[in-house]
Design brief:
- The chain contains 28 helices and 14 strands.
- With 981 residues, the protein is of the alpha+beta class.
- It has four domains: 8-245, no CATH class; 265-353; 469-666 and 717-733 and 940-978, no CATH class; 740-938, no CATH class.
- The chain has a five-stranded mixed beta sheet with strand order 10-9-8-12-11. A three-stranded mixed beta sheet has the order 1-5-4, with no helix packed on it.
- The radius of gyration is 39 Å and the shape is extended.
């Protein structure tokens, strides 16, 4: 409390004492085993014993204080006591709101029904005595107490602060006749003196829990809360008490029950200075507006001018009233008349000043920036519809039809440009400087969104295709539901209209497709000679666009999954570190993922989870049907003023193993445990062969491996997935690609690097200290190595968690966020173990195998990332030999670790997936194939980036309109990046 130094007197209504005990018992949630029954009653004998113990404690403390007091008369008996008897659990404050400043009494944590104890200790509680004390406090002749000197207050205890924080509570009985007092049921008045030196805060060891507090803090369910309230309502022992605080800056929480209204008068008083400042700002603007009217030679006495003048006069009148109320509040306690006057004044201010949102009122912010933000939200609010939403829409509350999108964008654009047209000094005066800077950053996106929605064409070269947002197609996914998608055909037409179709063959020249596409398909024929494209489009391969699909789950709000499907071309603009010849063509890696991958749709996990799995199946079926149509019928595009029909051929589905299993209906995938019984119903984990079953060793990479005889012999599904209907190779299992990124960077090579780092601690080469200290020393060496070799390193330390290594019973694995750190760790480990073995006195076959595996892994990755889309014979030989060397060395290292009883170099199903990848390279080299497809073509590094970007967009739209709103916002983003190339 600020202002004059005077006691702060607080009051609440008398509340059932049973409430306090219920609150205490429920606050000890760990000790409560059952719900409180309504017929439970307090044990009177236990209460009496506790009260007697408290009386003895009071007497002992009183004697100690008497011995410590300085000579001089002290009125009455006083002794510091605990807020609650020792026999009771101490309650904690459930609320911290400032209390209402009204008259006593206030209740504290006292024992009910201990009548004899309180009669003996304080028998002065007669009506006559209470009336006399009340008249003494109200007497104007009575000298005020000095709150800074408790000794000068009559009847208060004299204590010395022996620590920086000294909070004492003393009970003071007022002098009165102790004879002929009648017994009353626990309604004694007490006076608590709380002295607080540090930070002006009061620590209260008692209080009550409201229904909301029991729900949020104690985590009670609804039934338990009802039981507490019912018990406390039935228990009617009541008592009252007032509190006197002798500290200028202290406050006491006001206990409340249930939905009882909180005190708000003090909060309104605290708002007055800010409201006064807001009134002055508005008055200044009114005066400036009147001056502008005079400058424009308009009559200030017109209707508008008079209205503004009256507006300003009313504001200044309110300003004076609020200032007067503020001054009266500092002088005395408020009356009902003052409280009503304040309420009416605040209501009038709300009408005259700019509107404030409830959030602003709660946080006491009255800035113009928040007002403008609320205005923009109002402008963007969807227009309510007169007719009901179609039943076929997947979104629970979908947006308005496309025909009504344009007016909203126009209103937004008009609002933004109106702010930008204001002079700078006006923005400064109105507090709009920060808002104007943010608007400057978003004005270009708003302009592009406006052009997309209206199809307008100006002189800008960044003109979006006509009505692209209206091309969002509602796909029928079954069960009378529809889902918004961006059809591949519509997107190709939009790319052609904006002169961006050459992105599909990695060029900027419209006419280069006649050279690039036939070259690609000639090389693809050596990779997959039985693909349907070679039999159906033999005469016009230059007009067939190769397409790859990718699907993955991103993360949206509340860490919920969102399925993101996109399509792309395997041909792009290469890699930054590539040193291959132009004849090898270029991988689709370079550039922003918005300009190299194109979204088909997004789908929130709740829309296709559990019993709604048909939604995702329907989306994939719709995509498959469109790809079938594009394969046979194609789409006619305007390319450089010439009408050309292009077709599309599917090469495969990229993604991690979970999405492959989900879309392809695979019965053999990584999540299935290897069985030891040959059966047609249950098989292994590889969709290309029967690896994992008994007699089919998945880790055997030799030419005579048993699983080779089952390669493409047994279908990996009981029913084909939706994509199987798309024209492709007869071996439809080829459609599901093994991903290099998840197989190596997040798989086998992560196992290699994680075990290699822990192996340093196994050989005690990281210095003294425990494992965490040794890991930090290893990280310092790795960071130095990466700095010297200019290798990117994203991790900022090595921990057990980062290596998934809680102890020697677990297999370590590199669990870092960035997959590129796997390559950095392998590079460091190769240098480290090479230097160590170069000076070793004895040969260690275990470390030799680890070093050979590291060298092979680094050569494998380095060669792939420096190559183009197609590997020449020489590069294919290097990659195949490195891959086979790694398979041999890693298997040897794992075997030797097992012999030593160490959990290192784990063999997982991804090791078998790597065998298939290397087997394709080795077969291509042995057949002397001129060009071999680079496995990075089927990796998902850039697709992961695209999924993250789109998932981020889903967090910036209305969750009830996520699907369609995300597609619209994506269209704006993709066009911005397409034209920035």
């Amino acid at each position: 409390m600020a202002g004059k130094a005077r006691p702060l007197r607080l009051q609440t209504r008398s509340i059932s004492c049973g409430t306090l005990y219920a609150g205490q018992s429920f606050m000890e949630a760990n000790d409560v085993k059952e719900e409180p029954r309504l017929d439970d009653r307090e044990n009177i004998e236990e209460d009496l014993r506790a009260a007697h113990a408290m009386l003895q404690s009071l007497k002992m403390r009183a004697r100690k204080l008497e011995a410590l007091k300085e000579p001089g008369p002290v009125a009455g008996f006083a002794a510091p006591v605990d807020p609650v008897p020792p026999a009771r659990p101490v309650a904690t404050p459930a609320r911290t709101e400032k209390p209402q400043r009204t008259q006593p009494p206030v209740m504290t944590d006292a024992q009910p029904r201990s009548y004899s104890f309180w009669e003996q200790a304080y028998p002065e509680n007669s009506q006559e005595t209470r009336d006399r004390r009340r008249s003494e406090r109200a007497s104007p002749e009575m000298s005020p107490k000095d709150p800074k000197n408790p000794k000068s207050s009559e009847g208060l205890a004299a204590t010395k602060a022996t620590s920086p924080r000294n909070s004492d509570a003393s009970l003071k009985p007022h002098e009165s006749s102790r004879n002929n007092m009648k017994t009353e049921s626990f309604n004694q008045r007490m006076e608590i003196v709380i002295r607080n030196v540090k930070e002006g805060r009061v620590v209260i060891d008692s209080g009550f829990y409201s229904e909301s507090a029991m729900k949020t803090e104690l985590k009670f369910d609804k039934d338990r809360i009802k039981a507490v309230v019912a018990y406390c309502t039935k228990t009617k022992e009541e008592f009252s008490q007032y509190v006197e605080i002798i500290d200028n800056n202290t406050s006491l929480p006001n206990p409340v029950l249930g939905n009882e209204a909180l005190p708000c008068y003090d909060e309104d008083i605290e708002k007055i200075p800010q409201i006064l400042g807001e009134i002055l700002k508005v008055r200044i603007k009114v005066d400036k507006t009147l001056e502008e009217l005079k400058k424009k030679k308009k009559d200030p006495q017109s209707k508008d001018g008079k209205l503004l003048t009256e507006h300003g006069e009313q504001l200044m009148k309110l300003h004076d009233e609020l200032a007067e109320i503020r001054a009266d509040h500092n002088a005395k306690d408020p009356s009902k008349e003052a409280m009503g006057k304040l309420k009416n004044a605040l209501a009038t201010v709300e009408k005259l000043c700019p509107a404030r949102s409830p959030k602003q009122v709660e946080s006491n912010h009255y800035g113009r920036e928040e007002v403008e933000e609320d205005t923009m939200k109002t402008v963007l609010r969807p227009v309510p519809k007169a007719k009901a939403k179609p039943a076929g829409d997947c979104d629970d509350d979908d947006e308005s039809p496309d025909e009504e999108d344009v007016p909203q964008v126009l209103l937004l654009l008009r609002h933004v440009t109106a702010l930008l047209r204001k002079p700078w000094h006006v923005l400064v005066e109105q507090g709009n400087v920060k808002k104007s800077i943010l608007i400057m950053q978003m004005i270009f996106e708003v302009r592009d969104c406006f052009k997309i929605c209206t199809g307008s064409r100006g002189q800008s070269t960044k003109t979006a295709p006509t009505n692209l947002s209206k091309r969002i197609h509602q796909l029928d996914v079954g069960h009378d539901k529809k889902h918004p998608v961006l059809r591949v055909k519509d997107f190709l037409q939009a790319l052609a209209e904006s002169n961006k179709l050459p992105l599909m063959w990695g060029s900027t020249n419209n006419d280069s497709y006649a050279e690039v596409l036939p070259k690609f398909w000639r090389r693809w024929k050596t990779h997959d000679p039985q693909h349907a494209v070679f039999s159906h489009h033999r005469g016009h391969m230059a007009q067939v666009l190769p397409l790859q699909l990718h699907g993955d789950e991103g993360e949206t709000l509340k860490k919920t999954g969102v399925m993101i499907l996109n399509w792309q071309s395997p041909i792009g603009f290469g890699l930054a570190g590539s040193d291959d010849s132009p004849s090898a063509m270029s991988l689709n890696y370079l550039g922003n993922s918005y300009a190299t991958r194109f979204l088909y749709t997004v789908c929130h996990k709740k829309s296709y989870a559990k019993d709604k799995s048909y939604v995702l199946t329907g989306i994939v079926q719709g995509l498959a049907e469109e790809l079938v149509d594009l394969f046979y019928n194609g789409v006619t595009l305007n390319l450089g003023g010439k009408e050309t029909t292009f077709y599309a051929a599917l090469l495969g589905l990229k993604g991690d193993w979970p999405i492959q299993a989900r879309v392809g209906n695979l019965t053999r995938h990584f999540a299935r445990k290897a069985v030891y019984k040959v059966s047609a119903d249950t098989s292994g984990f590889c969709h290309l062969c029967r690896a994992g079953e008994q007699g089919y060793d998945a880790n055997d990479y030799s030419q005579n491996a048993a699983w080779r005889e089952t390669f493409l012999k047994v279908p990996p599904w009981t029913s084909e997935g939706p994509l199987c209907r798309v024209p492709q190779s007869p071996a439809k299992e080829y459609m599901h690609k093994f991903d290099i990124f998840h197989t190596l960077h997040k798989g086998v090579f992560a196992e290699l690097s994680g075990s290699g780092l822990v192996l340093i601690t196994d050989y005690h080469l990281a210095g003294a200290g425990d494992i965490p200290q040794q890991l930090q020393a290893i990280y310092a060496l790795m960071a130095k190595h990466c700095k010297d070799t200019a290798t990117p390193l994203h991790m900022d330390g090595l921990t057990r968690h980062l290596l998934s290594f809680p102890g020697d019973y677990a297999y370590p694995v590199g669990n870092w966020f960035k997959g590129a750190d796997t390559a950095a760790a392998c590079s460091f480990l190769e240098a480290f173990w090479s230097e160590h073995l170069a000076v070793a006195n004895e040969q260690d076959l275990y470390l030799d195998a680890v070093l050979r595996a590291l060298r092979a892994a680094n050569v494998f990755l380095r060669t792939l990332y420096r190559s183009g889309l197609w590997l020449s014979v020489d590069r294919c030989k290097i990659v195949a030999e490195a891959g086979l060397a790694f398979l041999k060395a890693y298997l040897e290292a794992s075997s030797r670790a097992y012999e030593r009883g160490r959990t290192r170099f784990k063999l997982t199903p991804k090791y078998h997936a790597l065998i298939h990848i290397i087997d394709v390279l080795a077969t291509a080299y042995e057949s002397n194939r001129r060009w071999t497809l680079n496995p990075l073509c089927e990796a998902t590094q850039m697709d992961e980036d695209f999924v993250g970007r789109v998932a981020n967009v889903t967090t910036a739209v209305n969750v009830r309109q996520m699907h369609k709103s995300t597609l619209r916002k994506y269209l704006t983003n993709v066009w911005t990046h397409l034209h920035s190339r």
